[in-house]
Structure formats: C-alpha cells, structure tokens
Amino acid sequence: MGYATGNPGVVISTIHFINSLKGFATGLYGEILYTENGGLNWTINRALTRNYITSINFSDSLNGVMTGIFGTILRTTNGGISYIGSESQQIPEDYQLHQNYPNPFNPSTTIKFSLKRNAEIRIILSNILGEQVRVLTDKYTRAGDHKVIFSSEGLPTGVYFCSLIANSSVAQTRKLLLIK
Fold first, then answer.
1. Most Cβ neighbours (<10 Å): which of 24, 44, 102, 152?
2. 133-155 pLDDT, tens per residue?
3. Largest Cα–Cα distance in the chain?
4. What is the residue range of 174's domain?
C-alpha cells in the first residue's frame, strides 16, 4: 500500500517521522522525501539511489540510516536530505561492524564488532519494515574486538538489519538473512 505526497508519480513505501513535524519517506524507485511540516509539503531527491529503500531508522534527530535492496545503505549525520551519503563510501574510523557469520543463518549467528576507543554501544536488530525487533547489546564497551551471539528464537524467516550505534550515532548497518 502506498501513500500520496503531492509529488506526481511518487508512491511512498516507507515513512519515518523523527518528531511530529520532521520526517522522511521513500518511494518505490529510490526517491527520498523530506518534510518539516508534518507531511503537508515534501522535498524530493531522486539522485541518491534508484534502489527500493526498505527501512528508515534514526538514533536521534540528526543521525539516521536508510537501507534497501541490493545492499543499499544511505546515512545522514545532520538530519537533512542534502547530506545523505552512501555508507559504503564512508568507512568509520573508530567503529567497525563486521558481517555476521554464518549468513544466511539458523538458529544463531555471531556478530563481531571492533572499537578503536571506548564507547557507549547499542546493537539493534530491525526488520525489513524498519521496526526494531531486538536490542542485542546496550552498554559501555572498552576498545578492542568484541562479539555477540544472536539467537533467532521467536523470529520468522526474513531479512533483518543489524545496526551498530556508538555514542548515539549510527556507525554501520549490515544485512542478515534468517532462514528457518
């Protein structure tokens, strides 16, 4: 099901509001829309990707990640559409979330991450709709290499996204595939 935005030819597939006025939406062909008035008017950007965006997630009003098909990962660090850039081109200097192994997996997988300095770390798991389904860790963590064992108990087969949030900023997101 889609939503009208007043932009001809754009049907919204995913929408996320940071607060009652400010929000993002995505279209079926990679369009990214932005509003600051509760959805009355939308600014559209068609130049960032042509891939279907499946998830929008913000850790705070400035830092957000959009993920989509074919490994598309876009992020913003200022809460605005004009500064969304490709995550694959921005390798974090202080934090690294490694691809889970095995992937695809059933019933569990190992998620490794590396820190060059101490940080408040949250690792969250979101479904393909962008809904948070689990918090895998949420604690102050010392620099070094770490791992979390994720058990898929209670979750259906599907695509999930694992995000490493360090000091309230999304550092990286990885795609996981659960097959039961």
1. 24
2. 999 999 999 988 999 999 999 99
3. 50
4. 95-178
